[in-house]
Design goal:
The chain is an all-alpha fold. The protein is built from 15 helices and no strands.
Length: 320
Amino acid sequence: MNARFVVGRILQVIPTMTVILVIAFLLVHLAPGDPVLALAGEHGDAGYYAFMRQRFGLDRPLPQQLMTYLARVVSGELGFSYVYGRGTLSVIMERVPATLLLSGTALAISVLVAIPLGALAAAKPHRARDVGISAVALGLYSTPAFWVGQVAILGLSLELGLFPVQGMTSAAVAHGWSHAWDVMRHLALPAMVLAAQEIAVLVRVTRSTLLDELPRDHIRTARAKGLSHGQALVRHALPRALLPVVTIVGARIGHLIAGAAVVEIIFGWPGMGRLLFASLQSRDTPILLGLFLLVSLTVVLANLLSDLVHAALDPRIRLR
C-alpha cells in the first residue's frame, strides 16, 4: 500500500479530533444546568458553591477552561469525576469492556447474518425470497431499538423465559465456565437487538452491490467457462461487492455505539451507555467529555481503518 496515502489519512485524524473536542466541550459547558447545583443541591450556601466552582476550575473564563482541557487531553489526563471523586479515565475504562463485548458481538452477528442474506436475496432478485428478505430488512431498519428491546424482553425473557431480563451476570454465578456461559446468556438478547438495524443496512447494501455486479462482463465470462450462477456469485461477484460493505461497516460504528447506549439502558448492561445516562443526570462534565472523546476517537479510527482496508482491496483508491 502507498505509504503516502496511509500517512495522509492518519494525519487527518489530528485536526478532526481537535474540532470534535472543541465542539463537544462547548456543547457540554453551554448546555443548561449547573454541575455544582447538581452535586451540592439547590439550597446550599453561596460560599460553598464558590468553593466548589474554584475546586473544579469552573470559575475561570470558558476559553481558559477550554485550553486547560485540551492541554490535559494532549498529556493523557482527562480530569477528575465530580461524582466518583477519582480519575475520569479509570471510571470510563471500567465500563469499556462491557460495551466492547456488546458492540463487538452485535457487529459480528450483523456481518455474519447480513452478507449471506444479502447474497441470497440478490441470487434471485424480485422473487419471493428476495421480497421476503427485503421486507424483513426494511422492517428492522424502520423499527427503533428501544421498541425492539422492550418487545424482546416481554416476549423472549418474561413470557418464554429464554433469556435473562437484566444485567450482565447472575449473582449466584461467580467464576469458571459457568460464569462465561452466564455472561453469554445475558449477552445474547441485547446483542441481537443491537444488531437488528445493522443487519437491515448491510443486507440492503450487499444486495444492491451484488445486483450491480452480476451483469458485468467478468461474471458472464465466468458463467461461459462453466460456473453455475451461485458459484459465479460467490467466487467473483461477492468479493468485489464487499468493498462498499467494508466502508459501510466502518461508517456505522458510530451508530452502533450510539445504539448500544440505548440498549444498555433497556437491558441494564453495565457499559458506557449507562454511565453516559447517569453522568447526564448528575452533570458530571469530565465523564461526559471523556465519553465523547473516546466514542469520537473510536468512530474516527474505525473510518480510518475501513478506508485503509478499502484501499488495500481496491488499488484505484490510493492512486487518486
